[in-house]
């Protein structure tokens, strides 16, 4: 238990809100069940697992901009913006990094 004046700065299982990959998966799961109510964020691709799906999305939206965010970072650290025409060297790096990429609105 807690002492009367004790405080907490983390709640159990709150990493599902703070980790971008877990949040994306949870929102996507809810969107499948309630599409209208959970159309609250652009579709995301969790890399490296969804890399091929992201490549397909880039081919279909060649003028789109994309934002890549590391899964477990904060305060804007590590965020990158890309066009759909990602250079091959960057493509290889992103295919191996843990992150989430979404269409930049």
SSE topology sketch:
Layout: H1 15-18, H2 20-33, E1 44-47, H3 51-60, E2 65-70, E3 80-83, H4 88-94, E4 99-103
Antiparallel strand pairs: 1-4, 2-3, 2-4
Keywords: ATP-binding, Ligase, Nucleotide-binding
GO molecular function: ATP binding; tubulin binding; tubulin-glutamic acid ligase activity
Organism: Alexandrium andersonii
Please describe what this structure looks like:
The protein has 105 residues and is an alpha+beta fold. The protein has one domain (15-103): 2-Layer Sandwich (Dna Ligase, domain 1). Helix content is 33%, strand content 18%. The chain has helices at residues 15-18, 20-33, 51-60, 88-94; strands at residues 44-47, 65-70, 80-83, 99-103. Strands 1-4-2-3 form a four-stranded antiparallel beta sheet, with helices on both faces. The chain is globular. The protein starts with 14 loop residues before the first helix and ends with a strand. InterPro entries: ATP_grasp_subdomain_1, TTL/TTLL_fam. This is Tubulin--tyrosine ligase-like protein 9. It comes from Alexandrium andersonii.
Instruction: Give the count of structural domains.
Output: 1
How is the main sheet built? Answer: 4 strands, antiparallel
CATH class division: Alpha Beta
CATH architecture: 2-Layer Sandwich
Structural class: alpha+beta
Molecular shape:
globular
Q: What proportion strand?
A: 15-25%
The parts where pLDDT drops under 50 for at least 5 residues are none
Total strands: 4
The percent range for helix content is 25-40%
Distance between the termini: 45 Å
Cα radius of gyration in angstroms: 17 Å
Spatial sequence of strands, sheet with the most strands: 1-4-2-3
Question: Would you give the CATH topology?
Answer: Dna Ligase, domain 1
Mean pLDDT: 90
Number of helices: 4
> What are the secondary-structure elements, in order, as H or E?
HHEHEEHE
Protein name: Tubulin--tyrosine ligase-like protein 9
GO molecular function, one term: tubulin binding
Pfam family, one: TTL
Keywords: ATP-binding, Ligase, Nucleotide-binding
